[in-house]
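As a warm-up, study this chain.
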Amino acid sequence: MKVAVVGATGLVGGVMREVLEERNLPITEFLPVASERSVGKKVVFKGKDYEVIGMQTAVDMKPEIALFSAGGGTSKEWAPKFAKNGTIVIDNSSAWRMDPTKKLVVPEINANQLTNEDKIIANPNCSTIQMVVALAPLHRAFNIKRLVISTYQSFTGTGVKAVKQYEAEMAGGTMGDDNAYPHPIFENCLPHCGDFYENGYTTEELKLVHETRKILGDDKIAITATAVRVPVNGGHSESVNIEFGNNFEMEEVIKLLEDAPGITVLNDNANNSYPMPLFAKNKDDAFVGRIRRDESVENGLNIWVVSDNLRKGAATNAVQIAEYLVEQNIV
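Now compare it with the structure written out below.
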């Protein structure tokens, strides 16, 4: 099986290569793909050097699967060209997520919706993925009415430029006009993830609203979010306040989360055991803890969700989709 990674020289592309090395996708030919300025550069995959190729070259080589992490504009232009040539595209950008003709997939929740007709499959936003893995079993059991979400998102979610800004500021300097953010990120928190809309919300906040509804298949859920960029090198954290339509018992909530695929529950306050990005880094699960009843509202619950945003939030989720396609003989 021929597999392409589009955006292979980027931050998420590099993690995609790592995840592909670790997992059992039956790759017989690996194609690292990037923009023209990166063509000819070398990347390493399974101990071997590979030369980066351009987009059209990759299209012409007709890989069975192309994992895209090269930005929305690139995806809009090139994903249909790959798909037209028979390749299944799994796209990590926001380009196709809210397209009603495209599936928005978290394998633990809705991979069973995929068919042979799906040639472009959307990977959700990193902050959405980790949260819905925890919410899906709770929604099925207790019917979520409303969510109030506060995120604490790593600067790595912005990409290489943000990492360079953080490292320069940590070393006592600045990046000048090439900053990823309008303010320092080192020793700071920015309530500004993405671009602002006229209603005062940011792109990251509205992704949480719209993507969550689409993945859970329920447009009636009321959702509001505040997304904050924090000086954490890898790992998004989220405080999620949930109001259910049905009564629940805490023991049942915890058991549902413990039994759900892709989740590790860390909820032992007596031993200071709760999720933190430092310990979620380089792991594939979403970690859930600080599970407690919201005593200010009927049928309310608070949870704290942490995950490595470059792995389950991006690369791992995309590779898991590819694995499902292989297992089901869709590819």
